[in-house]
Hints:
Elements: E1 2-6, H1 21-33, E2 39-41, E3 44-51, E4 54-61, H2 69-78, E5 86-92, E6 100-103, H3 112-121, E7 127-132, H4 138-144, H5 147-150, H6 159-179, H7 181-188
Parallel strand pairs: 1-4, 1-5, 5-7
Antiparallel strand pairs: 2-3, 3-4, 6-7
Helix pairs in contact: 1-6, 2-3, 6-7
Amino acid sequence: MYLLVGLGNPGVQYVRTRHNIGWFVLDELARRHGIEFSRKNCDARVGSGIIAEQRVMLAKPQTFMNLSGKSVAPLLRYHNIGISQLLVICDDLNLPLGKLRVRSSGSDGGHNGLKSIAGMIATTNYTRLRLGVGEPERTERAERGTADFVLRPFLPDESPAVESTTARAADCVETFVRDGTTAAMNQFN
Length: 189
């Protein structure tokens, strides 16, 4: 079984924010493959189904972004899923809106959700799909930091790019499940 984790924050105030783009991708996959987030397991809303003839679990941790590892690590253990079957989908404010980047390992790049996961599973050798959400202006970054930016909703004129990015990211996840990390990297990076 594959564990496909979208990072985000629970609560209506975060639904359409940049930080929750990982959940947008899971929602698109659920729509395409008839998967419902019908239960809660290990502090995550989860749904199970089939993608590319493989069993998958879609998971939206409900722990808030900075504690995502407290959901991901127990999901891996409880369902006996190997690290090679884990894909984490998250925002990246260092990538332009619409850009995708798949990596099979690496640092958290300052992303607290990825940092939490690496700390709880004791490795950085897991696949992650980072989605560009744009970045704040230099003066805004200096004055307010990045947290304020990623917790804001996308602007109305960004909607077409967000929809396109979400669809391409869902395609990338399907490729990962069907053909593996290297194929996803070659096709979508």
